[in-house]
Specification:
Helix content: 25-40%
Number of helices: 12
Order of helices and strands: HHHHHHHHHHHH
CATH topology of the largest domain: Cytochrome Bc1 Complex, Chain D, domain 2
Largest sheet: none
Mean pLDDT: 84
CATH class of the largest domain: Mainly Alpha
Bound molecules: heme C
Shape: globular
Structural class: mainly alpha
Number of domains: 2
Distance between the termini: 77 Å
């Protein structure tokens, strides 16, 4: 290859590199300015336990963020309310973290007593057998109190309007969502639609979620992450969009299928109409699988070795 071709290649590589840096780093830095959704940071409060702001510096110093994130995603129902970009505008450096060796700590504050938190930091395995979190017993009393006071403030600043909400593309406020709702002619409040939905549910969902939608269908026995129990009061807060979103896209990390691949939009709206009727006021339903563990009434018959292993006739 002559010198000219070599130079052209070098320029090509350099400009590709610059375009990548420009579009993924520089442009978002200038253009992405989220509206603040908070007035202050969590840790800028008085605390009887210690100094949360100093505790946060210890959190950073000790590298807690290597193993703990501070952002809840849509699929993280067990970690509490969702976060928004605007929650972080005043926090520098933010503690989003990148890996979850341990659980997400966004809403850890108030979940456990301060004594528990302290005992856990001194010796994680004392309160969580089998935990792989390192012991932080080397922290002096002041550091320990400040760190615990910081942990107890996590999740304070967010005013939760809604616990869970479907992504924007399912809301009427966006063009895609507007079109989606425009195509829908199922009245999800009507009994007739709910009835139709029940039929679709029995055919497609009952194997996992159970005929009574308590999450105890025959398939659920073999699933590590159990199917949802729709009679829980928790589901009262779900709006149509949230139901539709979950049915359409499934739940990442579980066996819940993406039904947009196999059911029409119309069928999914009928299902929404049905699922909406299920949540109860109080947790009056008993998860039959839990019960099974306790009463232990499924016993294998005592069989001899011959009965377990049918002979092939060789001996
Ligand atoms: C090597 C990874 C690792 C590091 C570093 C680490 N943790 Fe953990 N952490 C874990 C794991 C794993 C768990 C889950 C088991 C348990 O609860 O002990 C956990 C659990 C927790 C919990 C309990 C959460 C809950 O609700 O059950 C808290 C609080 C916590 N860590 C705080 C901290 C703090 C504060 C630091 C820094 C001083 C820290 N962790 C450093 C791995 C880590
Ligand atoms: C192969 C088993 C399986 C089938 C079939 C199945 N699901 Fe699920 N479903 C699950 C599992 C597992 C979860 C996850 C529960 C969790 O995350 O706690 C789930 C979760 C859900 C959720 C989300 C619940 C939440 O907490 O947000 C909805 C809604 C749902 N399923 C509706 C349906 C409907 C409607 C059908 C039928 C069209 C269906 N599922 C069929 C296994 C299944």
């Amino acid at each position: 290859m002559n010198g000219y071709g070599y130079r052209l290649g070098a320029i090509g590589i350099m400009s590709t590199f610059f375009i990548i840096i420009f579009s993924t780093v520089l442009m978002p830095m200038v253009l992405f300015k989220p509206e603040p959704t908070v007035t202050r940071n969590d840790y800028e409060v008085e605390s009887k336990i210690g100094n949360p702001a100093r505790g946060r510096r210890i959190y950073i110093r000790e590298g807690c963020f290597y193993c703990h994130t501070q952002f809840t995603r849509l699929q993280d129902r067990e970690y509490g309310p969702l976060v928004k970009a605007g929650d972080y505008v005043y926090e520098t450096p933010h503690q989003l973290g990148t890996a979850r060796t341990g659980p997400d700590l966004t809403n850890e504050g108030g979940k456990m007593s301060s004594e528990w938190q302290k005992a856990h930091l001194v010796q994680p395995r004392a309160v969580k057998p089998g935990s792989i979190m390192p012991s932080f017993s080397f922290l002096n009393d002041e550091d320990m109190n400040d760190l615990v006071s910081y942990i107890q403030t996590l999740g304070n600043k967010r005013v939760v309007e809604k616990y869970v909400m479907a992504p924007d593309e399912y809301q009427v406020t966006t063009p895609v969502g507007y079109a989606l709702h425009g195509r829908n002619h199922v009245d999800t409040k009507s009994d007739a639609a709910a009835n139709a939905g029940r039929g679709i549910f029995t055919q497609n969902c009952a194997v996992c979620h159970g005929l009574e939608a308590r999450g105890n269908g025959p398939n659920s026995i073999s699933l590590t992450k159990k199917p949802a129990n729709f009679t829980r009061p928790f589901y009262k807060q779900y709006d149509d969009e949230m139901w539709f979103y979950r049915i359409s896209e499934g739940v990442p990390g579980t066996r819940m299928p993406r039904f947009q691949l196999s059911l029409t939009e119309e069928e999914r709206w009928y299902l929404v109409a049905y699922l909406k009727t299920l949540p109860k006021d109080v947790e009056d339903t008993v998860d039959k699988l839990d019960q099974l563990d306790k009463v232990d009434h499924v016993r294998l018959p005592k069989l001899t070795r011959q009965q377990y292993e049918p002979t092939t006739g060789d001996h």
